[in-house]
Structure formats: C-alpha cells, structure tokens
Amino acid sequence: MYADAFASPLAPQASPRVSNSVSESVIFALVLGSMLYQMSLCFINTVAFGVSASLVILVELFIYLGCLWCLRREVPHYLGAFILLTAINLLLLSLLRGYLDPKPFRDMMIVILFFWLGWVYGSVRLVNKLIAVSLVLAILMGAFEWLALDTYVKFFHTFSYFANQSGIGAGGSGAIFEDQALTLNGFRPEGIGRTILPWVFGSHRISSFFLEPISLGNYATLVLAWSLAHWRPGERQYLWFMAGCGLLIAYADSRFGLVVSGLLLATRFLVPRCLLPAFSLAPWLMATLVLIYAVYFFHGTYSDSFVGRLTRTGFFLGEFSVRDLLGAQSPLKNYGDMGYAYVVSRFGLLFCLLGWFWLWRLPLSGLPAERFRAMACLYMTLILSISGTSLFALKSAGLLWFMFGSLLACAAHSSSAQSASVSKDANP
C-alpha cells in the first residue's frame, strides 16, 4: 500500500529483472572495486611509481565503463529520461557559465550508474555479501595500520599518494611533522585530541583501505544505516555488521559517525513508520535553519567545528544571487566543506528539488526499505552540512546508490511476483 502511494508517472515502474547476461561475481567485483581502487593505486604509488591525478581519473573511467558494459542491454525508460534531463541541465549550465566543469558530470555519473546497476542486478543478499566482505577487509586492514604502522606505510604511503595528485604538500612541505607518511587528517592535532578511545589509539586516526579516516567513518555510517533498517529480532548477521561499524567508527575517530549513529538508532527505534516520509524535508529544513542562524543570530568568530562549518555555509547561502541559485555562477567557487553551497552552485536549485522529489517517489517496498531511505537521507542531510564533496566520493557513493537500486529491484521483483500470482488465481 505504501509503495502504491508513491507511484506516479515520474516514478520507476515495476519491471522484470534483466537477463542473466552478467554474472553476480562481475557486479560484486565492480562495486567492491569502487571501494578498493584508491588503496590499490596507493600501493602502486608507494612501491612502484608515482600515481598522478590523471591515472586516478583513468581508473575511475574504467569502473564507469565496466558499469556501462554490464548495463548495455537494459535502459529503463524512466531512467533514460532522467539521464537525458541531467545531461541537458548540466550542459545548459555550462553554456550559461561559459565553460565546462567536468566535476558535476562525474558526480552524477556515480549516482546514475550505481543506482542503475543495483536496480538491474542488485538484491539485499548481494548488498549483504558486499558488506560482509568489505567489513572484514576494513577491520583487518585497520588492525594492520594500527598495530604495525611502520610496516603499513612501507606499502601505503598515503601522504605522498595524495601529494602526487594535488601537488599540495609535495616534498613534505605540507606535513605536520618530519617524515609524515599518513594524510594530514590521519592524526588529531595537539590540543584537540581523539574523542573515541584515546587511551587505546593515541592521536592516530585509522583509515584502513579507504586511506582517509573521514571516508572510513562515512562508510561505517552507511553500513550501520543499512543494518539498522533491515535488522529484526533474532537476526545475528546485522548485529555483527553493527558491531563492525562501531569498531570502524572508533578506528577513524569519526565524530560525524558517532553523532549520526545516535540519530540512526533513534530513528530506528523511536520513529514510527507513518513519520518516515517527514525525513524528505530534512535537507531543506537544515539549509533554512543554517541560513537563518548565520544571518540573524551568529555574532561570534568562525572556528573549524561542526557549528562553525554550518555557520559559514549559512553565510555563503545568504549571499547567493538568483543566478547562483540557478547554478549559473561563473566562475564556480570552491566551497570546501560547504556541501549545500556546493550542490546548489553545481546543479542548480531546481534540479536539486527535482532529484530529491524523484528519490522520494521511488516505489520502495517494505518497512526496511522505507527505513533505509529515511536513514540514508538523514546521512546525506548531515554530511552536506560538514563536507563539500564527500557525498560524491566514489569510495562510499557507489555503495550508497547501489543499495538504493537494489531496494528498488526488490520492490520491482516483488510487484512482478504479486502480479503473476494474481494472474494465476484469475486464470487457474
């Protein structure tokens, strides 16, 4: 009944699953590869030769081409229309700006391709398999980094890997201390210190195969949302997933993960089903509150904290002109940790509204799917509050949109099975 309430001409309709032309192992390898490719390139950079930003882009391109090859025979009409609308929007904005920025195209490519891949080939069982394997790898790699750091950096010198790509800190000029081998956020500076288990991990923030502690915390938060949404009393698998997420959040000293975990738990156990659609208002409410607070109530000085980042985002949103809101800003500014300013300036407010509306019109089936959508939207709302581009990082974004696509696949499969059952009953 809930899925029917969301049905509309704009929503994807139930469709038979695609032919088994691509094996599940290929899909598994593609999604897992989207999480592991940075670690593989870092290993090459450390033991073989320097990896440039161009090589990273090339590897990402091969992942996207792999997705397209798997999907070459299945183009749902509604998704084809959305792809066309996205391309027209981005090309039109490029014309208005007077130049082409490839970053928004790449961001939307991740969303579309991995959602598409999940809808055609995904399932809850496949997502659980991906989570189980990636969780074990993340925990083991994290333990290796924690317990044998000197050996770890001989194979994964993350500081030089990112320095080779951006040029920032090349030659050690941007290091906090001499011979630094981990990324700058791989340690909590003196005076701030760790929040989670400082007597166990010291100032070290573990990154595991994600190479950055922020990415590890984001991944753990997503997996926790999936596990909480699907857990039912008596199911041990999701309890193990949740325990692994807690360990990874502790590894990374992810304050974001710690805060969002509490909100996810409250959503799971305190929010009734009838109120889950209210989460569709979350990002717009957050952006409005941030804007009002920054313009009318903030009178202090900026600090690099959660409140400080929100305040700075509010200031920039308050300065947006109509042209900026439409996404026609030229030249595009670097909004750093201001996610709301980033998405509005890159895609335009109208497209953001349409995309969010489309997400909430997806005819997902069952309470676990509805819970996950609400929790994932809460995750997106909060990550846009403190980070500019983390929502579109392939290491975690590919998994997020594959999850969404897989849930839609389950809804379509369930609808098809139900229709077949009704037809059989009507024509015995």
UniProtKB/TrEMBL annotation:
Transmembrane segments: 51-71, 77-96, 108-124, 130-149, 209-228, 240-266, 278-298, 340-360, 372-393
Keywords from the UniProt entry: Membrane, Transmembrane, Transmembrane helix
Annotated source species: Pseudaeromonas paramecii
Protein origin, superkingdom: Bacteria
UniProt protein name: Polysaccharide biosynthesis protein GumE
